[in-house]
Amino acid sequence: MPVWFGTDGLRGTSFQFPVAEAPFRAIGFFWGQILREQQGRDVDVLVARDTRSSGAPLARALMEGLSAAGCRCLDVGVFPTPATIWLAADRGCFAAIVTASHNLYPDNGLKLVGPDGKKVPVEVEDYLEGRLRAYVPPPDVLNVRSYGEEAARRYQAYVTRAFPQVARPDVRKPPLYLDLAHGAAYALYPRILRALGWSVYPIHDRPDGTNINDRAGAVYPEALLAHMRTSALPDSLGFAYDGDADRAILVWPEHGVLDGHHLLAVLALYAQEQGWRPTRPAVVSTVMANQALEAFLAERGIELIRTPVGDKYVLQAIEENGLLLGAEPSGHLICRSLSPTGDGLLTTLLYLTAWLERPDLVREVLASYRPYPQVLRNVPVARKVPLEQVPGLQEAIARARDRLSGQGRIFVRYSGTEPVLRILVEAPAEGLAVEVADDLARLAGQVLESSGGGSSS
Hints:
The chain is an alpha/beta fold. Helices cover 39% and strands 20% of the residues.
């Protein structure tokens, strides 16, 4: 299994191995060789990045490696991850995105994607890691074509075709406030929504290379909520995105921050009214999904299928069951008829379509869906000791579950993209959830530190 590639590609501190120019050049070269061998012809690779200052040199190094392997690079520049993935599928080519998604600017990373819109197989990641360990620099070659403006035009044309309802001039459109997290969508999303006839008021849309995701966007939607409660026009809606724009969180001044569960609930009811093109009335989320969501959907005849954490597992369950929709609470929402990945803009337009056509469904979810309080604690770790080997942790979790008396959930796992242990506690009462989560986080930090897991990094 790969060590450096995680659940969402390669990620780490910029300019430290393996997120540095030399290994990126090597990854480009070795991946390019695989593509040339598999395709047996010239290969185009879209290359995009987010707004981090490290993105441009890392992307150039990657393109140097790809070029040396005989590939042609289509340099999209700063561009959202989901839009790049759609463009790759539309062109039938491969894509590489230099991004660390929702992480802060010192980090960066890499996502490698095939023409089907899916991340490359684990076997390819494993092969690339093996070749990196015996890296020899490739020849100095660069075969790059600038592709940013054409990419933006094509993606805008696709969105306009896919959502004719939201472009109609005869419907009342609420003002839209967008928190763009100083990220990859800072220019594209306002451009497209304005072209569709919406009044757009962006914040955090001035990237300087270091401010991506910094107290902004989908990882900090409270910033957009505070802004809208003091400055927004009446009847406004807000959407907060992360740095590479594959997440969307809804912000409504009257109702607060509404996560991916709310979005999934609304779209599930809307899809049910449209006749459920899938095989049966069911949607997908992860083990992190709120129990209240499962109960809300079940009362309306909709099954909730749970998967491990990660959008690739959500997509896998959607495809295996012939379904349409899946989402994570973080705001990753997949509508398989539109894209194989979470796409902040598509999520926004799906929700606006339901809001315009069936506002009563939105009101029903707002009135009836009441998620149980969830408390998440992140415990930094230097290395990820297998949880079953952490002394006392399983016993502590068992005692904590006894405190919940079967009326809540505890979920403990390592992040697939960051060096942290995530502890999620769900309970009918928020105070109890806070107590249990804090006690577990305190013990986990102490035990991991004393056992060599460390919390000092």
